[in-house]
Amino acid sequence: MKVLVIGSGLAGVASAWFLRQYGAEVTVVDRCDGAAMETSHANAGMLTPSMADPWNHPGMLLKLLKWIGREESPMLLRPAALPAMAVWGLQFLRNSSPERHRENTLKNLRLANYSLDILRELRAELGIEYDSLTAGTLKFFRDRKTLDEFVQLAEVLHEHGVDYRALKGDAVIELEPSLAPIRNALVGGLHFPADESGDARLFCEALATRAGERGVVFRFGETVSDIVTERGRFQALLTSAGRLEADACVVAAGSYSPLLVKPLGIKLPVRPVKGYSITLPLGDWHPRPQMPLIDETLHLAATPLGDKLRVAGTAELAGWDNRIRPERIANLQRFVGQVFPTYPAHRHQDTITEWAGLRPMSTDGVPVIGATPVAGLYLATGYGHLGWTMSSGAGALLAALVTDHHPPLDLGPYSLQRQPHPDR
């Protein structure tokens, strides 16, 4: 069986790896010059079943209205993106009822837990090094109301197997001494010990290398222009280098997946939500963070990755515009000063790496994994902020489906047919 995979990010490479394990002849096509060059390149680095809750929380509409026009807001809507995002946005808000949000959180949690198990198996089997940490994650809070809201969510997750510890101020500092300078600003924290972290790019590149050694072909620098079908069945890809024929195709092109399948009449309810990160050298600064830290007031995170610190966050509804905006980067730099006032930012100003990527976000916050109305054409996208967390498991499940094996997790909750689709 010959299978083509569009995209060499985390989802595409994981799909390719497991397809090859099932004996398929696999070719991965990507317009970039290497694996993990786009959304998988410099994300927050967190592997977090504890963050399975979709972003369209109950009350999101009021928050969006409050944030309109504020560059420092956690979620920002660019007016130029309205035509492409309007219908999607209405359905995004429609899925923010308490009942739907809880249901979708549990869908995500099932996949996230499964995926983290698969990633651990890959790490043990292949010996991949990616600056991994297994210390969990720590959410810290500056006001009691927000803490109480997240304790309620943590209890829901706990009912489904996610352990957590609620910490008071001094206990937060005992666990994470790097927060000592802001001790007086904190009311408490939540520690999720089973979460992990690591550099997604390093993992993806290493898995791509291992896949290549096992026979997966990577065609980098090649852009897909068209998906060819005949009588309702996938036939080939037309690319900048010619025509590629296969028995099946997996579309794992992140936020660009809807654009690829739209000419086929497939309405994929996924749109880009831009996120930003900066990566700073840790140098001789101490005490450095021991685990990923999430500030639920500022909606930003800091993750130690070897000798670097990745600071990431913000959500920008700007369509397929992936330009780096200085004002959003400035928000991240202010965060460093607010949370780590002893970090010598002035010494490292010239060595900060800025990045922006487009998260593929579905209208219900749940990924789209599985078959399409076109026979032989499959989707692996829509992970939102959980791409690193979910991709290994999604790749394993999709590979089983494509090769007519029984996926160990029901893919029904993640199918394209589960919900109404936007009209554009």
Polypeptide structure, described:
This protein has 424 residues and is of the alpha/beta class. It has helices at residues 10-21, 60-67, 82-94, 98-126, 144-158, 169-175, 200-213, 257-261, 326-339, 387-402; strands at residues 2-6, 25-30, 46-47, 75-77, 137-141, 165-167, 188-192, 196-197, 217-220, 224-230, 233-239, 242-245, 248-251, 270-281, 293-295, 300-305, 308-317, 353-362, 368-371, 377-381. The longest helix is centred in the N-terminal third of the chain and has 29 residues, at 98-126. The two termini are 34 Å apart.
Features:
25% strand; 10 helices; alpha/beta; 424 residues; 20 strands; FAD/NAD(P)-binding domain; six-stranded mixed β-sheet; nine-stranded mixed β-sheet; disordered C terminus; single chain; 31% helix
Number of strands: 20
Q: Give the mean pLDDT.
A: 94
Radius of gyration from the alpha-carbon trace, in angstroms: 21 Å
Runs with pLDDT <50, length 5+?
Answer: 420-424
Indicate the proportion of strand residues.
Answer: 25-35%
How many distinct domains?
A: 1
CATH architecture: 3-Layer(bba) Sandwich
Strand/helix succession = EHEEHEHHEHEHEEHEEEEEHEEEEHEEEH
Approximately how much helix is present in the residues? 25-40%
Chart the SSEs and their pairings.
Layout: E1 2-6, H1 10-21, E2 25-30, E3 46-47, H2 60-67, E4 75-77, H3 82-94, H4 98-126, E5 137-141, H5 144-158, E6 165-167, H6 169-175, E7 188-192, E8 196-197, H7 200-213, E9 217-220, E10 224-230, E11 233-239, E12 242-245, E13 248-251, H8 257-261, E14 270-281, E15 293-295, E16 300-305, E17 308-317, H9 326-339, E18 353-362, E19 368-371, E20 377-381, H10 387-402
Parallel strand pairs: 1-2, 1-13, 2-9, 4-17, 5-15, 13-20
Antiparallel strand pairs: 3-8, 5-7, 6-7, 10-11, 11-12, 14-17, 14-18, 15-16, 16-17, 19-20
Helix pairs in contact: 1-7, 1-10, 4-10
